[in-house]
Amino acid sequence: MTAARRWEGLLFVAPFVLLYTLILIFPLLRGVWLSLHRVALFGPDHFIGFGNYARLAADPIFQQSLINTFVVTLMIVPPLTAIALALALALNRAGPAAALMRGIFFSSAVLSVTIVTLIWRFVLAPDAGLLGELWQALGWEPLPFLSDQRLVLPALAITTIWWSVGLPMLLFLAGLQQIPQEMYEAAALDGARRWTTFRRITLPALKRTTILVVMLQTAAQLQLFGQSQLLTAGGPSGASRTAVLFLFESAFGRWELGYASAAAEVLFVIILAVTLTQYWATGRRGEGERGLRH
Amino acid sequence: MSLELKNVRKAFGATPVLDEVSLTLQAREFVAFLGPSGSGKSTLLRIIAGLETADAGEVWLEGRRIDTLPPGERGVAMVFQHYALYPHMSVRENMAFGLRNARVPSSEIDALIADAARVLEIDPLLDRKPDQLSGGQRQRVAIGRAIVKRPKLFLLDEPLSNLDAALRLRTRVELAQLRQRVEAAMIMVTHDQAEAMTLADRIVVFNDRRIQQVASPMEIYSRPANTFVARFVGSPAMTLAPAALTGEGGLASVQLGDGTVVQTEVAREGLPTGDLQLGLRPEHIKVDPTGAGATRATVELVERLGERSIVYARLKNGLPVTGEDGGLTTIKVGDEVGLAIDGSAAHIFGPDGSGHHRQSA
Hints:
The complex is a heterodimer of chains A (294) and B (361). Chain A is mostly helical and 294 residues long. Chain A has one domain (30-283): MetI-like (MetI-like fold, Orthogonal Bundle), CATH 1.10.3720.10. Chain A has 14 helices and two strands, in the order αββααααααααααααα. Chain A has a two-stranded antiparallel ribbon. The radius of gyration of chain A is 24 Å and the shape is globular. The model of chain B has no long low-confidence stretch (mean pLDDT 91). In chain B, 41% of the residues are buried. Chain B has two domains: 3-231, P-loop containing nucleotide triphosphate hydrolases (Rossmann fold, 3-Layer(aba) Sandwich); 239-356, CATH 2.40.50.140. Chain B is elongated. With 361 residues, chain B is of the alpha+beta class. Chain B has helices at residues 41-49, 91-101, 106-120, 135-147, 165-181, 193-199, 217-222, 227-232; strands at 3-12, 15-24, 30-34, 56-61, 64-65, 76-79, 153-157, 185-190, 202-207, 210-215, 239-246, 251-256, 261-267, 276-280, 285-288, 295-304, 308-315, 320-326, 336-341, 347-349, 355-356. In chain B, the strands form four sheets. In chain B, strands 6-7-8-3-9-10 form a six-stranded mixed β-sheet, sandwiched between helices. In chain B, strands 13-12-11-14-20-21 form a six-stranded antiparallel β-sheet. The chains are: A mainly alpha (294), B alpha+beta (361). At the A-B interface, helix 9 and helix 10 of A face strand 6 and helix 2 of B.
């Protein structure tokens, strides 16, 4: 192949490469550059090396926001995965009723975060909310979900699960559709009970889907922002301030762009590390299996 | 007695697939369900396995009614067309799965698997996963998974259809050996008559929701119950020619549309009145290139198979006939040839399609 032809080929991918560089690569590098400076909104930037990172390491508010992020991610991802799988199992059948239910459970995913938090504010508010009235009807004191430090992260988690369950459910449904009916027939002839069939046939077949769901959701929930910003603004006393909310406040509240950039880089590295660890931990066994082939 | 089907009926929605099917299998018998696609043979197999429910009728196996039991408790094992091996389990686990579910002790499971693996020569594969096996190996594992359960009845759903031609022949021989080793009866669904003819003790021919004939392979071939069986079994298919009774005597002689008279060995007595058809297999119509014989025909196609040649020709009145000549035939398309018809092997079919044959010797 001649050099001229290679250039023609490059021409075809050029629009994408250009756009990708402009809106992804450049901001990424610019962010790294910013994080090494004290950035003033007006006036020149001052190079301060790892000063911003050192400050972050000592900042209790940033540390708390990281802890909050991990805790809320742990509260969301396992139940979300389990609920999505349960819904998919229940709705993996023909007929208009199941189709309608699939539509209903997926519909929350198309809502914007503003609407979602609005809905859940009505549900969670202790004086007039849905849960409050339910609690009162049962004769209990209504729980102040959004103003109690111990309840606010669970409340965020529930809101997020409700909002995000649609896509994982669809992924699991797609995974279930891939399992040939013959597998279940063979299992029936092998005398497998429902639980055995689920554990030995269905679950192994959904392994890849489950890994995908967990990885996508972990990466997504480590960036949780809108729910926390709109429902509680990080309160009470920072109990629901997530990492992204922290960097939003630093950047667009206190206009410390360099400091916020450093926080963003730290979060980026954390998400990358967590995702790669998950990929590595779940992918290795598959490698071993393939290695046996000849 | 092994399996007994009593008036089994099945419809999918408004489409009937089986009408009042009854059948009895002897102990250790190997029966082939033979029929075209959609004839109901696979549905019947699945009803026996418990994967479909019959609308009416009963299924009994060795004196026990099984159509009310779940598939796993019927004492049947099935080899699926696409093998249906569990992809995440090793060969050993695939074979052990059914036994574990039946709470067979581990030591016994190991012994059963070792036994089956030795017989099927799959010992070296026991720790592999199905996707590391060839098609033939998967087939053996699927059979092994059925054997270890020591079923009272084996069900084989088109067991050879996924194998290439060479492997199919070899596996056919292996299946024949397998049935010598197992105590159970076997049912094999197939649309390949060669499989049915070579493997089965008896063939059950299905068409149009009903059993057309149940008989030994040779009887199916030499005494087909009706025109469907006559045309479906045997390759190339039997020639069926409209014919009219003629002459006198205890044995029927018939006249074909072009005037040829064929003296058969079918008893005249008992033949129905109305439009008859004469049935002749290709090997009973010898084609003579010199034009000698009972009648003449124009050749339309010659298939040279090596040991013999199949000649497709047309009689003067336009009726298509299929005959045979030697492997080194000189016949060409367009030739005028003579046909020597062996009337002693001819069949006569009544207006309802029912077959009449010469008295068995």
